[in-house]
Amino acid sequence: MSNQTSAFHTYPQDEYTITDDALKKSRFEVEYFAVRARAESVRFLLEFVGANYISRAPVNWPASKKDTPFGMIPVLTHHKPDGSVFE
Q1: What 3-state class would DSSP assign to 8?
Q2: Where are the domains of the chain?
Q3: pTM of the predicted model, to two decimals?
């Protein structure tokens, strides 16, 4: 038997779920094209921790580009329970 440690670890899901009440009541929105690319890691993380989120693609990207931070996507928007938005 080898004394080496594995490069792959498994973690129990319940240890990494959201426990903060404010975060549980928050809603997240991921805006990116409907492909697996730059936003996929964010989607994986939100799914892993059990966050309340939606993933949406821009309907008309050339027209909505000016409304995004830095004119780029992906954009992650945090809708806090008090109604404020953090982008």
Answers
A1: coil
A2: 20-58+78-87
A3: 0.73
